[in-house]
Amino acid sequence: MVRFEAAGKIFAGSGARPAFTALEDIDYTVPRGAIAGIIGRSGAGKSTLIRLVNGLETPTSGKVFVDGVDVAALDAAGLRALRREVGMIFQHFNLLSSRTAFENVALPLEIAGISSAAIRGKVLPLLDLVGLSDKAERYPAELSGGQKQRVGIARALATDPKLLLSDEATSALDPETTQSILELLRRINADLGLTVLLITHEMEVVKTVASDVAVIDGGRIVERGRTFDVFTRPQHETTRSLLAAASMGAKLPDWISSDLKPSPAAGDRALVRLIFFGKTAFQPLTARLVAEIGPDVNILAGAIDEIAGEPFGSLVVSYPADAETLERAARFYARTGLATEVLGYGV
Ligand SMILES: Nc1ncnc2c1ncn2[C@@H]1O[C@H](COP(=O)(O)OP(=O)(O)OP(=O)(O)O)[C@@H](O)[C@H]1O
After folding, report:
1. CA 84, CA 239: separation in Å to the nearest integer?
2. d(CA 75, CA 57)
3. Which residues, in sequence order, are bridge partners of residue 304?
4. Pocket mutation for ligand 1, best pick of 14, 17, 20 (most atoms within 8 Å of C-beta)
5. pLDDT tens-digit map of 181-191
6. ipTM of this complex prediction, to 2 decimal places
7. Residue 20 CB less than 6 A away from ligand 1
8. Alpha-carbon gap, residue 162 to 160, rounded angstroms
């Protein structure tokens, strides 16, 4: 549905301001029907990336295709047609304050020259879809943040797009409202078959709805894959630190983690995070751990979490960091294929 081919973006400098490379060598495909997340820190290049998809920015190298069409090659009429196919929702909703919810949703249809009877026939079901039938005549100032975003979503759907771009659509919302908007996006994706490409700095958003994720850092994609795989076995330092900040899975109290050393001294214990899959894996795992590594295994933290609908568990354990125990543990992990992460060493 969306394909980036070696896409790059350099913003030209002017005067004393040097040119800036915002994106470099982006190869990425969003499959039709997927909810794909692009995650990265502030300034990583997420907004620039998403703006390449609807032609708000033009790549300075490489290409971006939507449904096989090279976006940069479109003329003005082609771009207008593309933007009917590609809806967008925004962090600050971008509603017109002088228009009611109904009139905001109707706007793209008015611009497309649709008759007012047809507009009514389109807008009312859309307001119903997003759960705002009773707010049609309200102005944005009379709506909550979540309700405004629902209007934004209904407006984005007005032209029956095939693709929805979401630019930090839940970043201004509280956690509960975020969940309800994500649930709405998931329903739209499933019921209307709409492909969704969302950018966010919030791990929680990707974790809840995105089946696929790409991690962007310094204008490059540093890691990508199925969300479950990337989140349970992160390979890149950026992914690890974003996950740590989001406190996914089992988390150690600060007073333990702040005292950890990178290598063991005599008498130290190894602190290791074990990651396993499925709600039921917890119990047999702990029993086997003790049987294989020895009785001196402490469980420091444990949690069962869910990523894109799939359960996973993590357990932080400690055991003596002597050579023999470490080797027994390494053999056990290799044999079982358990994903592990050494957090450090301490007492
Ligand atoms: N028009 C522009 N001219 C020059 N530099 C720009 C321009 N637009 C963006 N940039 C720079 O490109 C980099 C990426 O910006 P972008 O907005 O894509 O990041 P982001 O990941 O979306 O960050 P945020 O989450 O803070 O919006 C930033 O360093 C930004 O300053």
Report:
1. 34
2. 14
3. 313
4. 20
5. 999 999 999 99
6. 0.92
7. yes
8. 7
Is 2-234's fold the same as 254-346's?
no
Instruction: Report residue 248's pLDDT band, with 50, 70 and 90 as the boundaries.
Output: low
Whole-number Å distance, alpha carbon 241 to ligand 1 midpoint, is 21
Closest CA to 37 of 191, 200, 167: 200
Provide the pLDDT for residue 262: 92
pLDDT tens, residue by residue, 32-53: 999 999 999 999 999 999 999 9
Give me the residue spans of the domains in the chain: 2-234, 254-346
- The half-sphere exposure of 134 on its side-chain side, counting CA atoms within 13 A, is 1
Q: Class of 2-234 per CATH?
A: alpha beta
Which residues are CB-neighbours of 209 under 8 A, at least 6 positions away? 35, 37, 182, 185, 186, 189, 196, 198, 308
CA 104/CA 136 separation, integer angstroms: 10
Architecture category of domain 254-346 in CATH: 2-Layer Sandwich (3.30)
Candidate from 7-16, 207-216, 252-261 with smallest mean pLDDT: 252-261
Average pLDDT, the chain: 91
Residue 259: phi, psi to the nearest 5? -100, 5
pTM confidence score: 0.83
Q: Quick check: helix, strand or coil at residue 115?
A: coil
Residue nearest to atom 16 of ligand 1 (CA): 45
**Which range, of 65-69, 87-91, 279-283, averages the lowest pLDDT?**
279-283
Is 31's C-beta closer than 6 angstroms to any atom of ligand 1? no
Predicted pLDDT of residue 194? 95
Q: Comparing C-alpha atoms, which of 13, 281, 284, 285 is closest to residue 272?
A: 285
CA 10 to chain CA centroid, nearest Å:
25
H or E element at residue 327? helix 323-336
